[in-house]
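Morning - calcium ion inputs below, output right after.
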Amino acid sequence: MYSCAVVLAAGEGKRMKSTTPKVLHKVCGKEMINHVIDTLREADINDVNIIIGNGSEKVKENTISKNVSYSLQEKQLGTGHAVKCAKNFLEGKKGIVAIFTGDAPLVTTETVSKLVSFHQVNGFKGTILTSIVETPYGYGRVIREKNGEVKKIVEHKDCSEEELEVNEINAGMYCFDIDALLSSLDNLSNSNAQGEYYLTDVIEILKIKGEKLGAMPVPFEETMGVNSRVQLAEVEDIMRRRINNKHMENGVTLIDPKNTYIDAEVIIGNDTIIYPGNVIGGKTIIKKNCVLYPNSRIQDSTIESGVTIQSSVILESCVGNNTTVGPFAYIRPDSVIGKSVRIGDFVEIKKSTIGDHTKVSHLTYIGDAEVGENCNFGCGTVVVNYDGKNKYKTIIGDNVFIGCNTNLVSPITINNNSYIAAGSTITEEVPEDALAIARARQTNKEGWVTKKAFNK
Ligand code: UD1
Ligand code: CA
């Protein structure tokens, strides 16, 4: 049967106290609304309409790549009114519409699929997802008939004493027969405690019409919504645990999963070992057999197999097989580090390529450079790529040996198999096979200390 989805995302999210619309707050590196859209798509619901209102432009900008459509709700008059705003999207369609909210990102693909088939197999006109909770405070309560059939949903603020005792809550996620929903939306009224048009009232309207309704309880862990930063952190915690469990099931060792922070879209190969304090973000790919010792941040990067990293920052870069990075290295965007390279302590690489087997072991800056294979950078080498106004390029060939404390003033080319004496400031091209020395010759003044300077 045809199915589509409407995702409510027009609300303001006052309790977040934020200039960012609530649904754009991230959980494990991905906007909440994009979690919901991705989950719907994985459940084979492809035609997705987003109700936007507050911060509509920002919400659009951040979801546009998902190929969804939008309906504008200019004034937030309630969840029922929000769905009404999707009338153009729904009209003329025959089948099922799933309605979800953009601020509840923990619902799983399996649950969405189950909800749709539960709705369909039982021939319901409306089906709600529910949870049984200890403290139902704030949620709409699911009121059932004596025989267990769903009767209505009553919002917390409209509950009687008796209804407040009910601990089955409305998750705010539903399936409806499109025709049944459309024909009920016009009957909504806003004469309730909040003066809003409640989507939840559609359930009672359908019931009165004699339609069959269903309710499917799932663990609260899937239905939790985010209204505040505290809830955002709680949801993040659950999502993080799920992500980390998935990686462990795939053969990744996490020494301390509670202190390992991996974004939703990160890919990690098996037999990689990750120590605590690592923050791995964006679209990072880490291949197999890597060891990530504690406390690195790796963002939008590709780390090939067998790489060892410790206490370093790697941003938007690639690191080749069997290379070691750190401790305390900083690899900045657009860098490509080759295979079996050593990037040691206090080394910064910016927008540079480093060839295979090259060693940059300590205290070195390399910026805007192309470095060949099998080079050795002495301690304290600086690529002087900036003259205060412009940045220039440095080219270093293969098998170049650079002595300690060398400045390479860009633009400059250092050709293959050359050798630079320690302490040189190199300003001219170094030919192949040459030794370049660019420093003052040493003079020793014998007996100078006793004879003159410190004569007592
Ligand atoms: C809603 C349900 C409640 C349920 C709870 C689950 C109603 C009336 N109540 O309450 O039964 O237990 O969710 O979390 O539906 N929104 C709009 N336009 C509006 C109003 C809201 O797009 O005019 C969006 C919000 O951005 C949000 C979602 O709808 O994503 C839910 O709205 P919210 O005000 O948070 O509803 P609750 O009071 O939590
Ligand atoms: Ca809410």
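Note: The longest strand covers residues 168-177.

O.
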